[in-house]
Design goal:
globular; Rossmann fold; 250 residues; six-stranded mixed β-sheet; four-stranded antiparallel β-sheet; 10 strands; alpha/beta
Length: 250
C-alpha cells in the first residue's frame, strides 16, 4: 500500500513550555484503519485535533500524499454526535452535500442511510433518536461527503456495551463500502483489536509513539479466540510498562 499520511516532528504546546505532543513521527498507509490507544493525557485527542486542523502545530509537519492536509479531504466524528437539532436525520446527513445537485444529494443520502440501517428513520429529529442511532447519523454524515481521511475521537465511548459492539460493525461496513483511511482514537484495547490492522500506542505527556503493532488476525475477529487474547495481553503489557516508567520518572 502507498504511504498516505506522514507526520514528521509534530509538536504542540499550550501555555506551558513543555509540549503536550511530540516531537512525534508516524506514517500511515492508505485504506487502513489505524487505532491510536494510550493512557489519559498521552495526547491522543490533541493529535487528532491537529490532523483535523482544529489546532495549530507549534512545530513539525503532517502531510497527506506529500501535501499539507486539505480540510476538504477530512471527516471528523467526536464522542458526541453534534447533530443539528432543527434538521431531521436526512437533513443532517445532507448538510455537507450542498455542492451536489438535488438528485445526486438525495441518492448519496439514501445510500448511506441504507448502509447504517436508518432508512426508516430518515424523517426523525435528533431528540427522537437513541444514543446509538444519533452516532450512526454522525458517522453517516461524515462519510457521505466521501472523505479520504476519517478521524474518530472515541466515537463509541458513551454508548452501552451492546450498542458499542453494533456501532463497531456499522463502522466496518461503512469502511468497506467507502474505503477511507481511518484513524480511531480509543481507550478500549479490545475495540482497537477488533477494528484496526495498525495499532499505535502513545504515551506522555508529551505524546510520543512507544509501540506499533499490526495484528495478524482474520476478519471477523472473535474476541474470545486465542489469537485475539494473545494480542490483548501484548497490548496490556506495553501499556503497563509505559505506566510504570512514568511512575518511576516522577
Amino acid at each position: 500500500m502507498a504511504k498516505l499520511l506522514q507526520i514528521s516532528g509534530l509538536v504542540k504546546r499550550f501555555e506551558a513550555a513543555r509540549p503536550v505532543v511530540g516531537p512525534l513521527d508516524l506514517v500511515l498507509e492508505s485504506g487502513r484503519i489505524t487505532a491510536i490507544i494510550g493512557r489519559s493525557g498521552a495526547g491522543k485527542s490533541t493529535l487528532l485535533r491537529l490532523l483535523a486542523g482544529l489546532e495549530r502545530a507549534d512545530g513539525g509537519t503532517a502531510r497527506f500524499d506529500g501535501k499539507p492536509i486539505d480540510p476538504a479531504d477530512v471527516g471528523v466524528v467526536f464522542q458526541e454526535p453534534r447533530l443539528m437539532p432543527w434538521l431531521d436525520v436526512a437533513g443532517n446527513i445532507a448538510f455537507g452535500l450542498h455542492h451536489l445537485r438535488r438528485p445526486e444529494r438525495a441518492a448519496a443520502v439514501a445510500e448511506v442511510l441504507e448502509i447504517v440501517g436508518l432508512t426508516p428513520h430518515s424523517g426523525k429529529y435528533p431528540k427522537q433518536l437513541s444514543g446509538g442511532m444519533a452516532q450512526r447519523v454522525a458517522l453517516a454524515r461524515a462519510l457521505a461527503v466521501r472523505p479520504r481521511l476519517l478521524l474518530l475521537d472515541e466515537p463509541f465511548s458513551a454508548l452501552d456495551p451492546l450498542t458499542r459492539l453494533a456501532m463497531q460493525e456499522h463502522l466496518l461496513a461503512l469502511w468497506r463500502h467507502y474505503g477511507p483511511t481511518i484513524i480511531l482514537i480509543s481507550h478500549d484495547m479490545d475495540e482497537a483489536l477488533a477494528l484496526a490492522d495498525h495499532i499505535v500506542v502513545l504515551d506522555g505527556p508529551p505524546g510520543r509513539v512507544v509501540a506499533e503493532f499490526g495484528p495478524d488476525l482474520p476478519h471477523p475477529r472473535r474476541r474470545t479466540s486465542p489469537g485475539f487474547q494473545r494480542w490483548h495481553h501484548r497490548l496490556v503489557a506495553v501499556l503497563g510498562t509505559a505506566a510504570r516508567e512514568e511512575i518511576h520518572a516522577i
